[in-house]
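In the laboratory, one determines a bound structure by crystallizing the protein with its ligand and collecting diffraction data. In a computational setting the workflow is compressed into a single prediction: the sequence and the ligand go in, and a structural description comes out. We illustrate the idea with zinc ion.
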Amino acid sequence: MDKITDIILGEMQNDLFARKNLVRINMEKAYKNTDFKKADIAYREALLSNMTSKNEESQKKLDNAQKKRAACAKKAGIDLESLEVKYNCSLCKDKGIKKDGSLCKCVLQKIKNYKIKENKKQGFDFTFEMNKIASMKVKQSAALSKIYKHMEGFCKRFPETDFLNYLIVGGVGVGKSCLLSAVANEMLKKGRSVNFTTAFSMNKAFLDYHLSSGIRSLSPFTEPELLIIDDLGSEQIFKNVTVEYLFCILDDRIRNKKHTIVSSNLNFSMLEERYTQRITSRLSAKENSCLLNIDGDDLRTK
Ligand SMILES: [Zn+2]
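The predicted complex, in C-alpha coordinate form:
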Protein backbone atom coordinates (compact mmCIF):
# COMPACT_ATOMS: atom_id res chain seq x y z
CA MET A 1 0.00 0.00 0.00
CA ASP A 2 1.38 3.42 -0.86
CA LYS A 3 1.82 6.33 1.50
CA ILE A 4 -1.21 8.29 0.35
CA THR A 5 -3.52 5.30 0.78
CA ASP A 6 -2.07 4.79 4.24
CA ILE A 7 -2.73 8.41 5.18
CA ILE A 8 -6.29 8.30 3.87
CA LEU A 9 -7.19 5.02 5.59
CA GLY A 10 -5.64 6.37 8.80
CA GLU A 11 -7.70 9.55 8.59
CA MET A 12 -10.89 7.55 7.96
CA GLN A 13 -10.14 5.35 10.95
CA ASN A 14 -9.57 8.34 13.22
CA ASP A 15 -12.68 10.05 11.95
CA LEU A 16 -14.83 6.95 12.46
CA PHE A 17 -13.38 6.47 15.94
CA ALA A 18 -14.21 10.07 16.85
CA ARG A 19 -17.81 9.67 15.63
CA LYS A 20 -18.26 6.38 17.47
CA ASN A 21 -16.84 7.95 20.59
CA LEU A 22 -19.24 10.86 20.35
CA VAL A 23 -22.16 8.45 20.05
CA ARG A 24 -20.87 6.60 23.11
CA ILE A 25 -20.74 9.84 25.10
CA ASN A 26 -24.26 10.80 23.94
CA MET A 27 -25.47 7.35 24.92
CA GLU A 28 -24.00 7.63 28.41
CA LYS A 29 -25.75 10.97 28.85
CA ALA A 30 -29.04 9.59 27.54
CA TYR A 31 -28.87 6.56 29.85
CA LYS A 32 -28.86 8.87 32.86
CA ASN A 33 -32.58 8.99 32.19
CA THR A 34 -33.69 5.61 33.56
CA ASP A 35 -36.98 5.55 31.64
CA PHE A 36 -35.17 6.01 28.38
CA LYS A 37 -32.49 3.49 29.35
CA LYS A 38 -35.16 0.85 30.01
CA ALA A 39 -37.01 1.63 26.79
CA ASP A 40 -33.78 1.60 24.78
CA ILE A 41 -32.65 -1.76 26.15
CA ALA A 42 -36.10 -3.22 25.48
CA TYR A 43 -35.97 -1.86 21.94
CA ARG A 44 -32.53 -3.35 21.27
CA GLU A 45 -33.65 -6.73 22.61
CA ALA A 46 -36.75 -6.62 20.40
CA LEU A 47 -34.55 -5.69 17.44
CA LEU A 48 -32.28 -8.64 18.07
CA SER A 49 -35.03 -11.20 18.52
CA ASN A 50 -36.79 -9.90 15.41
CA MET A 51 -33.56 -10.40 13.52
CA THR A 52 -32.96 -13.93 14.74
CA SER A 53 -36.54 -15.18 14.46
CA LYS A 54 -38.63 -12.89 12.33
CA ASN A 55 -42.39 -13.38 12.62
CA GLU A 56 -45.52 -11.30 12.98
CA GLU A 57 -45.34 -11.26 16.74
CA SER A 58 -41.69 -10.26 16.96
CA GLN A 59 -42.32 -7.47 14.44
CA LYS A 60 -45.25 -6.18 16.50
CA LYS A 61 -43.12 -6.24 19.65
CA LEU A 62 -40.39 -4.35 17.87
CA ASP A 63 -42.80 -1.69 16.58
CA ASN A 64 -44.16 -1.16 20.07
CA ALA A 65 -40.70 -1.01 21.62
CA GLN A 66 -39.64 1.50 19.00
CA LYS A 67 -42.65 3.71 19.67
CA LYS A 68 -42.07 3.57 23.40
CA ARG A 69 -38.41 4.43 22.98
CA ALA A 70 -39.25 7.38 20.74
CA ALA A 71 -41.80 8.66 23.24
CA CYS A 72 -39.32 8.38 26.12
CA ALA A 73 -36.67 10.17 24.09
CA LYS A 74 -39.05 12.98 23.22
CA LYS A 75 -40.06 13.41 26.84
CA ALA A 76 -36.44 13.51 28.01
CA GLY A 77 -35.33 15.78 25.16
CA ILE A 78 -32.97 13.18 23.68
CA ASP A 79 -32.11 13.38 20.00
CA LEU A 80 -32.22 9.77 18.76
CA GLU A 81 -30.13 10.68 15.73
CA SER A 82 -27.25 11.55 18.05
CA LEU A 83 -27.23 7.95 19.29
CA GLU A 84 -26.50 6.41 15.89
CA VAL A 85 -23.19 6.35 14.09
CA LYS A 86 -23.74 7.87 10.67
CA TYR A 87 -21.64 6.41 7.89
CA ASN A 88 -20.47 8.45 4.92
CA CYS A 89 -20.14 5.34 2.81
CA SER A 90 -22.76 2.64 3.07
CA LEU A 91 -20.60 0.21 1.09
CA CYS A 92 -17.71 -0.08 3.53
CA LYS A 93 -19.20 1.66 6.60
CA ASP A 94 -16.21 4.00 6.46
CA LYS A 95 -13.69 1.24 6.95
CA GLY A 96 -12.32 1.97 3.46
CA ILE A 97 -11.82 -1.69 2.71
CA LYS A 98 -14.36 -4.02 1.18
CA LYS A 99 -15.08 -7.56 2.34
CA ASP A 100 -12.80 -8.99 -0.34
CA GLY A 101 -9.92 -6.90 1.03
CA SER A 102 -9.79 -4.44 -1.85
CA LEU A 103 -10.06 -0.66 -1.47
CA CYS A 104 -13.57 0.76 -1.47
CA LYS A 105 -14.47 3.27 -4.17
CA CYS A 106 -14.84 5.99 -1.53
CA VAL A 107 -11.11 5.58 -0.80
CA LEU A 108 -10.22 5.65 -4.49
CA GLN A 109 -12.14 8.92 -4.84
CA LYS A 110 -10.35 10.35 -1.80
CA ILE A 111 -6.97 9.37 -3.27
CA LYS A 112 -7.88 11.17 -6.48
CA ASN A 113 -8.95 14.33 -4.63
CA TYR A 114 -5.84 14.22 -2.48
CA LYS A 115 -3.58 14.08 -5.53
CA ILE A 116 -5.38 16.92 -7.27
CA LYS A 117 -5.02 18.99 -4.10
CA GLU A 118 -1.32 18.16 -3.82
CA ASN A 119 -0.85 19.17 -7.44
CA LYS A 120 -2.51 22.49 -6.72
CA LYS A 121 -0.26 23.04 -3.73
CA GLN A 122 2.73 22.68 -5.99
CA GLY A 123 1.32 25.27 -8.35
CA PHE A 124 0.26 22.77 -10.99
CA ASP A 125 -3.31 23.94 -11.01
CA PHE A 126 -3.95 24.64 -14.65
CA THR A 127 -6.69 22.66 -16.36
CA PHE A 128 -7.89 22.25 -19.94
CA GLU A 129 -11.00 24.28 -19.07
CA MET A 130 -8.80 27.24 -18.17
CA ASN A 131 -7.09 27.31 -21.52
CA LYS A 132 -7.82 30.54 -23.36
CA ILE A 133 -4.91 30.43 -25.73
CA ALA A 134 -7.11 30.38 -28.84
CA SER A 135 -8.53 33.81 -28.01
CA MET A 136 -5.19 35.38 -27.09
CA LYS A 137 -3.41 37.59 -29.58
CA VAL A 138 -0.05 35.86 -29.51
CA LYS A 139 2.07 34.31 -32.20
CA GLN A 140 1.53 30.75 -30.94
CA SER A 141 -2.28 30.94 -30.49
CA ALA A 142 -3.17 28.71 -33.40
CA ALA A 143 -0.31 26.23 -32.96
CA LEU A 144 -0.72 25.96 -29.19
CA SER A 145 -4.51 25.53 -29.46
CA LYS A 146 -3.90 22.62 -31.76
CA ILE A 147 -1.42 21.11 -29.30
CA TYR A 148 -3.93 21.56 -26.47
CA LYS A 149 -6.54 19.69 -28.51
CA HIS A 150 -4.04 16.96 -29.27
CA MET A 151 -3.06 16.56 -25.61
CA GLU A 152 -6.70 16.58 -24.53
CA GLY A 153 -7.16 13.67 -26.93
CA PHE A 154 -4.10 12.02 -25.43
CA CYS A 155 -5.72 12.17 -21.99
CA LYS A 156 -9.05 10.89 -23.30
CA ARG A 157 -7.52 7.89 -25.04
CA PHE A 158 -4.90 7.12 -22.39
CA PRO A 159 -3.25 4.61 -22.27
CA GLU A 160 -4.20 3.79 -25.90
CA THR A 161 -2.48 6.90 -27.23
CA ASP A 162 -0.83 7.59 -30.58
CA PHE A 163 2.55 8.10 -28.95
CA LEU A 164 4.28 6.88 -25.82
CA ASN A 165 6.62 9.85 -25.45
CA TYR A 166 6.30 13.55 -26.01
CA LEU A 167 9.09 16.04 -26.19
CA ILE A 168 7.73 19.58 -26.08
CA VAL A 169 10.25 22.28 -26.82
CA GLY A 170 9.88 26.03 -27.02
CA GLY A 171 11.18 29.25 -25.56
CA VAL A 172 10.63 30.59 -22.06
CA GLY A 173 7.01 31.39 -21.22
CA VAL A 174 5.35 30.07 -24.38
CA GLY A 175 2.93 27.98 -22.30
CA LYS A 176 4.56 24.59 -21.88
CA SER A 177 4.12 24.31 -18.10
CA CYS A 178 0.43 25.24 -18.24
CA LEU A 179 -0.13 22.62 -20.91
CA LEU A 180 1.65 19.97 -18.82
CA SER A 181 -0.27 20.98 -15.72
CA ALA A 182 -3.55 20.59 -17.62
CA VAL A 183 -2.48 17.10 -18.74
CA ALA A 184 -1.47 16.12 -15.19
CA ASN A 185 -4.75 17.33 -13.69
CA GLU A 186 -6.85 15.64 -16.34
CA MET A 187 -5.03 12.35 -15.78
CA LEU A 188 -5.44 12.61 -12.01
CA LYS A 189 -9.14 13.27 -12.51
CA LYS A 190 -9.25 10.04 -14.47
CA GLY A 191 -7.64 8.25 -11.54
CA ARG A 192 -4.35 7.62 -13.35
CA SER A 193 -1.03 7.68 -11.51
CA VAL A 194 1.02 10.69 -12.50
CA ASN A 195 4.26 12.16 -11.31
CA PHE A 196 4.62 15.76 -12.39
CA THR A 197 8.15 16.79 -11.56
CA THR A 198 10.62 19.42 -12.65
CA ALA A 199 13.96 18.36 -14.05
CA PHE A 200 15.49 20.26 -11.17
CA SER A 201 13.81 18.26 -8.39
CA MET A 202 14.17 14.98 -10.25
CA ASN A 203 17.88 15.64 -10.62
CA LYS A 204 18.14 16.34 -6.92
CA ALA A 205 16.38 13.03 -6.21
CA PHE A 206 18.86 11.26 -8.51
CA LEU A 207 21.77 12.76 -6.61
CA ASP A 208 20.27 11.83 -3.23
CA TYR A 209 19.70 8.32 -4.48
CA HIS A 210 23.22 8.11 -5.88
CA LEU A 211 24.74 9.26 -2.59
CA SER A 212 22.28 7.11 -0.60
CA SER A 213 21.29 10.20 1.36
CA GLY A 214 17.64 10.51 0.47
CA ILE A 215 15.17 8.41 -1.48
CA ARG A 216 15.92 4.70 -1.51
CA SER A 217 14.18 3.93 -4.75
CA LEU A 218 13.61 5.50 -8.13
CA SER A 219 10.07 4.14 -8.21
CA PRO A 220 8.48 7.63 -8.12
CA PHE A 221 9.89 7.99 -11.63
CA THR A 222 9.49 4.46 -12.94
CA GLU A 223 6.15 3.43 -11.46
CA PRO A 224 3.57 6.10 -12.41
CA GLU A 225 1.65 5.48 -15.60
CA LEU A 226 2.61 8.97 -16.71
CA LEU A 227 5.82 10.81 -15.85
CA ILE A 228 5.96 14.50 -16.71
CA ILE A 229 9.35 16.17 -16.56
CA ASP A 230 9.08 19.93 -16.83
CA ASP A 231 11.91 22.17 -17.90
CA LEU A 232 14.61 19.71 -18.83
CA GLY A 233 17.86 21.61 -19.21
CA SER A 234 17.31 23.94 -16.26
CA GLU A 235 19.08 21.58 -13.88
CA GLN A 236 22.77 21.28 -13.16
CA ILE A 237 24.55 18.35 -14.78
CA PHE A 238 26.12 16.12 -12.13
CA LYS A 239 28.76 13.83 -13.53
CA ASN A 240 27.73 10.14 -13.54
CA VAL A 241 24.30 11.10 -12.25
CA THR A 242 22.09 13.44 -14.29
CA VAL A 243 22.45 11.91 -17.73
CA GLU A 244 22.96 8.32 -16.56
CA TYR A 245 19.90 8.18 -14.31
CA LEU A 246 17.75 10.03 -16.80
CA PHE A 247 18.68 7.45 -19.41
CA CYS A 248 17.84 4.56 -17.06
CA ILE A 249 14.46 6.06 -16.22
CA LEU A 250 13.52 6.74 -19.84
CA ASP A 251 14.74 3.36 -20.97
CA ASP A 252 12.90 1.55 -18.20
CA ARG A 253 9.69 3.40 -18.96
CA ILE A 254 9.85 2.69 -22.68
CA ARG A 255 10.52 -1.00 -22.04
CA ASN A 256 7.48 -1.11 -19.78
CA LYS A 257 5.38 0.87 -22.27
CA LYS A 258 4.84 3.72 -19.86
CA HIS A 259 4.18 7.26 -21.03
CA THR A 260 6.61 10.12 -20.52
CA ILE A 261 6.27 13.79 -21.39
CA VAL A 262 9.29 16.06 -21.30
CA SER A 263 9.37 19.80 -21.82
CA SER A 264 12.39 21.96 -22.41
CA ASN A 265 13.41 25.50 -23.27
CA LEU A 266 16.32 24.07 -25.22
CA ASN A 267 15.97 23.11 -28.84
CA PHE A 268 16.59 19.60 -30.06
CA SER A 269 20.25 19.99 -30.98
CA MET A 270 21.02 21.72 -27.68
CA LEU A 271 19.35 18.84 -25.85
CA GLU A 272 21.37 16.34 -27.82
CA GLU A 273 24.57 18.12 -26.96
CA ARG A 274 23.70 18.26 -23.28
CA TYR A 275 22.20 14.79 -22.77
CA THR A 276 23.82 12.79 -25.57
CA GLN A 277 22.11 11.18 -28.50
CA ARG A 278 21.28 8.11 -26.42
CA ILE A 279 18.70 10.15 -24.55
CA THR A 280 17.34 12.30 -27.36
CA SER A 281 16.90 9.25 -29.55
CA ARG A 282 14.75 7.69 -26.80
CA LEU A 283 12.58 10.78 -26.81
CA SER A 284 12.32 11.18 -30.55
CA ALA A 285 12.15 7.66 -31.96
CA LYS A 286 9.63 7.95 -34.80
CA GLU A 287 7.70 4.81 -33.93
CA ASN A 288 6.64 5.91 -30.45
CA SER A 289 7.56 9.54 -29.90
CA CYS A 290 6.22 12.91 -30.87
CA LEU A 291 8.20 16.14 -30.95
CA LEU A 292 6.12 19.27 -30.47
CA ASN A 293 7.65 22.62 -31.11
CA ILE A 294 5.98 25.68 -29.60
CA ASP A 295 7.41 28.79 -31.07
CA GLY A 296 5.96 32.07 -29.90
CA ASP A 297 5.66 34.95 -27.46
CA ASP A 298 6.25 34.91 -23.73
CA LEU A 299 2.73 34.53 -22.29
CA ARG A 300 3.87 35.75 -18.92
CA THR A 301 4.29 39.27 -20.27
CA LYS A 302 0.83 39.30 -21.89
ZN1 LIG B 1 -16.48 3.07 1.16
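Residues 3-107 form one domain. Keep in mind that any predicted model is a hypothesis to be tested, not a measurement.
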